[in-house]
């Protein structure tokens, strides 16, 4: 009986180094150069794209600053106009308030004068009625009426 022979292990090929050669399947020098060239082109594309994006971001940032400054300037102008309008309106309100206070003062004084005249009239009427009663009825009433 024969013993089985041990099989020889096949040597495995080493994979190409990581990085530039990742996409390459074969390991020939021609394809390595081609992949290196592709890697350089991809690096240039990435540089161009990131440069364009950076420029666009810078333009957007400067546009945003300009727009912000314009918005602030317009807001300041609007607030100035509103301030002058509100100040004129407040002056008009204060003028109307002073006129109202003067009118209330005049009405109050007129009412007080009317009250004083009413009191004087009532006093005069009371005195007139008392004098009239004393003069006219005193001699005509019987003495036993109130006793």
Annotation keywords:
mainly alpha; 147 residues
Give a brief rundown of this model.
With about 150 residues, the chain is mainly alpha-helical. Helices cover about 75% and strands about 0% of the residues.
Task: Set down the secondary structure blueprint.
Elements (H helix, E strand, L loop, with lengths): L28 H108 L11
Question: Explain this structure to me?
Answer:
With 147 residues, this protein is an all-alpha fold. It starts with 28 loop residues before the first helix and ends in an 11-residue tail after the last helix. It is rod-shaped. Residues 15-26 have low confidence and may be disordered. It is 73% helix and 0% strand.
* N-to-C order of helices and strands: H
* Average pLDDT reading: 78
Q: Approximately what portion of the residues adopt beta-strand conformation?
A: under 5%
Distance between the termini: 176 Å
Helix content range of the residues, please? over 70%
Give the strand tally: 0
Unreliable sequence segments: 15-26
Number of helices: 1
Q: Main beta sheet, described?
A: none
Number of domains: 1
Class based on secondary structure composition and strand pairing: mainly alpha
Query: Radius of gyration, rounded?
Result: 57 Å
Task: Sum up the overall morphology in one term.
Answer: rod-shaped
